[in-house]
Amino acid sequence: MVLTTSIALPVSSAESDERSTATAAPSLLSRGIYSLYVQYHPRGSMTCDNVPRACRASGSPGPDCCRKQCVNMMTDNQNCGQCGKKCQFGQACCGGSCVDVMYDPKNCGGCNKRCKKGSFCQYGMCSYA
To answer: Taking a C-beta distance cutoff of 8 angstroms, is the pair 98, 87 a contact?
Structure first.
């Protein structure tokens, strides 16, 4: 058995105005919360596939657009040189190419870290022995 009670409290004129405007616009509220998102966040739907210039703005992760995200295809291991090209384990994206930074004397331990002439790259270090 459930017992419910209700209490009637006096309502001020400001509260009654708020209630009357909320009931006066049921069409706006009946569309759901997602209809309000575009109204309050006009840039929420702006992605780089719609506006490619967005990736060139200051603070952007990179100048290229891949799958609606701004990336730098010269350094991104998930999009190296082209969208979706992933570098394997132990490789890094250097200048848009996947290179083995553990054994490449031109990129030993990282991009553009050259070993001295005559030395070799092993385990990401020049002339490791």
So the answer is: yes
pTM score of the predicted model: 0.56
Q: How far apart are CA 113 and CA 101, in angstroms?
A: 9
Structure-block tokens of residue 23: 């009931």
> Reduced to 3 states, what is the DSSP secondary structure of residue 124?
coil
- Provide the pLDDT for residue 96: 92
Give CA–CA dist 38/28, Å, rounded: 13
Cα of 65 vs its chain's centroid, Å? 11
Round to whole Å and give the CA distance between 105 and 19: 73
